[in-house]
Specification:
This protein is mainly α. The chain contains nine helices and no strands. It has one domain. Helix content is 82%, strand content 0%.
C-alpha cells in the first residue's frame, strides 16, 4: 500500500481517538453511549454512498466531460450526499439529546460523526474512488477539511438549540457544509492544487472563527 494511502486512513480515526481519550479523562464516570453511536452511525453513511455511487456509474454520471457535469457531481452527487447524511445523524441522534445543551457540545458530536463517516469513506476510497482523484491530495487535505466542515455544521446546530425557529439555523449549517464540501470535491476532481489550498485556508479560517464564537456563546449562557 502506498504511503499516501496509509496517510489518508489516519486523520479521522486519530481525531476520534484523541477526542475519546480527552472525554474519558475529563469524565471518567461518564456515559459514552452517544459518542459510540455518533461514530458508528457516521460510519454507516458509507452504505448510502456506495448505493448512490452504483447509480452514478449505471447512469454514467461519473463521466465528467464538462464543467456542468463536474459541478453537479461535486456539489450534488458527492458533497450533497455526504453532508446530508452527517446532518441526518446529527439532527436525529444528537440534537434531541437532553445531554446536549451547548454549542461546543454540538460541535464535538458533529466532529465525531464526521470522523466516523470519513474513516469509512477513506477505506472505501482505496477501492472505489474515481481514478482522476489524486490520493496524495486527498491524504494531505482530508483532515483539516472534514474537521472544519464538521465545526461549521455543529455550530449552526448548536445555535439552533436555543432558537424558536431552529430550522433556519439547521438548514443554514447544512447548506454551508454542502457548499464547502462541494468546493473541496471540485478541487479534487480538477486536481487544482492552488484552488484546493485556498479553499482549505478558507474552511480552516471559518471553522476556527465559529469555534471561537461557540466558546463565547457558552460564556454568555453560563
Amino acid at each position: 500500500m502506498e504511503t499516501s494511502a496509509i496517510l489518508s486512513l489516519l486523520p479521522a480515526p486519530l481525531v476520534a481517538a484523541i477526542l475519546y481519550i480527552f472525554v474519558r479523562y475529563k469524565f471518567p464516570q461518564g456515559n459514552f453511549n452517544l459518542f459510540h453511536k455518533a461514530f458508528i452511525f457516521g460510519c454507516i453513511g458509507i452504505l448510502p454512498v456506495y448505493f448512490i455511487d452504483q447509480l452514478i456509474i449505471y447512469f454514467h454520471l461519473d463521466h465528467l466531460h464538462s464543467l456542468n457535469r463536474t459541478l453537479f457531481y461535486a456539489f450534488v452527487l458527492t458533497g450533497g450526499v455526504y453532508e446530508f447524511w452527517k446532518f441526518l445523524v446529527l439532527k436525529i441522534l444528537v440534537y434531541p439529546s437532553k445531554k446536549i445543551s451547548k454549542t461546543i457540545e454540538m460541535i464535538f458530536y458533529s466532529i465525531i460523526i464526521a470522523a466516523g463517516f470519513t474513516t469509512a469513506y477513506s477505506v472505501y476510497a482505496l477501492f472505489y474512488a474515481p481514478s482522476y482523484i489524486s490520493l496524495s491530495l486527498y491524504a494531505l487535505s482530508i483532515g483539516p477539511v472534514f474537521i472544519s466542515i464538521a465545526v461549521i455544521m455543529g455550530y449552526f446546530a448548536g445555535i439552533a438549540l436555543n432558537r424558536k425557529f431552529a430550522v433556519t439555523d439547521l438548514v443554514t449549517g447544512l447548506f454551508v457544509s454542502v457548499i464547502f464540501q462541494g468546493i473541496y470535491r471540485f478541487c479534487l476532481l480538477t486536481t487544482d492544487t492552488l484552488l484546493l489550498y485556498l479553499a482549505m485556508a478558507g474552511m480552516l479560517a471559518t471553522g476556527i472563527t465559529f469555534l471561537v464564537f461557540s466558546f463565547r456563546v457558552n460564556e454568555i449562557s453560563d
